Amino acid sequence: MADPLTAAAIAQLLDGVSDVTALVVGDLMLDDYLAGEAPRISPEAPVPIVLAQRSFHRAGGAANVACGLAALGARVELAGVIGDDAAGATLLATLAAANVDTRLVARDAERPTTRKLRILAGHHQQLLRIDWERTAPVPPALAAPILGRLDDPAPLAVVMLSDYAKGMLTPELVAAAVAAARRRGIPIVVDPKSSDFRRYRGATVITPNLAEVERAVGRALGDLAAVESAARELAGHAEADALVVTLGERGMLVVPRAGAAEHVPALRRDVYDVTGAGDTAAAAYALALAVGADHAMAAHLATLAAGIVVDKVGTATVRRGELAAAALARAGDKVVSPAILPELLAWWRSEGKRVVFTNGCFDLLHVGHVALLREAARLGDVLVVGLNSDASVARLKGPTRPLLPEVERAAVLGALGCVDAVVVFDEDTPLRLIEAVRPDVLAKGADYRVEQVVGRELVEAAGGRVALIPLVEDRSTTALVERIARRGSR
Prior knowledge:
This protein is an alpha/beta fold. The protein has 17 helices and 18 strands. A hairpin with a 6-residue loop joins strand 2 and strand 3 (48-61).
């Protein structure tokens, strides 16, 4: 099956995300990190000495799932339990900064906030982890508000149960949550920890990793056929619509209870840290289901998101712009809709990249066009090309133009290595598009004077500049068309 995650498909998925309200229920954690260099071994014991240089913290467990959904643009409500302690306060502040609604997070003075402290050498080498936790079942009284929210008629598009076996997801709460979601026709996605998948009976999707599947069936699973067979068996026991097995570097296997399985290969990325990759995959999968994607599309999106997050240090999330950029890089589809362009620009700029913009009709691409685009790309890190639509070209050039439709012109531009994104605009000038892009450099051919360049004042007022690029002599689409016509008349 061809990769369905084109830029257009990403845009279509993300268009509906802002209307999604997701409820995440599960074990909340605070992930703390202490990092530094480890230049020598202690004389007191055979252990590294870490010279502490920096510390940071992230939301972990179900809290990381919630942050992942929020980073992708959903409205997120989080339910769980923390202690009445400093770690709990830090976690709540972290969640607030991520725009996660924590009104359903309860405090329990009888248990500490689950906390994991990781000691890192260099940027990502984990030397030691220290845990604080209590895994006794959470009292039913603390879970009652969650069931009330599930019965509340307020909008809710998806429910996620994130089980880390820390006591929040008791069998009674899981059963009640699944029943309530089913009554409302809401998909319910479970990231499991228990090896008895019947505990999650009735879930829409269960998302174990390979090790969890092997524990659940009590045997090692070598090839994909064995994994598929085991997953189908577990889906039947759990009466789940599908099991989605994460396979690390081998990607993901989608196994419906009935029907053909699908293997989605992983992105080839540098793996710095797998912490939270499962959370990211489950969150992306749930969000895709919430906006109406099928299981195959959801799996592709989840694999894409997980492939991005393992390239980061510590428990991390993925932003919408990162998904768009990764989809562009993988599929080679550089034609970007206006809906996804702001996310893509935000991601590029967060990476410190300078954005160059140019525009034109680019009808019958020729050496002059290619020279201009190459020179424009050298002025920054990312080149965005505004392309006049068919209607716009006809108004500017006459009823016989364009010679090629916008779909073909955009595809040809996108095939050039120096071009990073192509955006079609319908107006006579690209002013509105320039306002959206806010480029660091606005590039045009030297047949214009600086004062004639549309958008000059806007770009310069924002601290950018206009660059005029020398043209290749005697090269234009009009001249090319005339030459072809003369030869055809001989």
